[in-house]
Design a protein that fits this description.
Layout lengths: L3 E6 L8 E6 L2 E8 L2 E6 L14 E3 L2 E3 L6 E3 L5 E3 L8 E7 L2 E5 L1
Antiparallel strand pairs: 1-10, 2-3, 3-4, 4-9, 5-6, 6-7, 7-8, 9-10
The site of FE2/S2 (inorganic) cluster has 11 residues, from loops.
């Protein structure tokens, strides 16, 4: 079972945006869409650009700014190449105004 780690305050991730956090040495992005939090690896599986910084969110899809790969933030699956490998996803929740990620 995942151990939840507090990564920051809830207001650090406003609606429609994503932010990367260092979670026990892993770079994990947290995004908020329709009030729901999604956590996934911040590192694009194509050529390792950071996704949260500069990535464009459309619904539950995030597009890497480097070469346009798109990933489903819910499942981590590739929606559009050139990436071929899925992102790791994690559980995310909000407790007492703080964001927690399950690792
Ligand atoms: S590094 Fe993300 S699409 Fe190439």
């Amino acid at each position: 079972m995942a151990e939840f780690v507090t990564v920051g305050d809830a207001d650090e991730v406003p609606e429609g945006e994503a932010k990367a956090f260092d979670v026990s040495g892993a770079e994990i992005a947290v995004a908020r869409v329709d009030g729901q939090l999604y956590a996934f690896s911040d590192i694009c599986t194509h050529r390792h650009c950071n996704l949260a910084m500069g990535g464009e969110i459309d619904g539950t899809t995030i597009e890497c700014e480097c070469h346009g790969s798109q990933f489903d933030m819910k499942t981590g699956e590739v929606v559009n190449p050139p990436a071929t490998e899925s992102l790791e996803t994690y559980e995310a929740r909000e407790v007492d105004g703080q964001i927690q990620v399950g690792v």
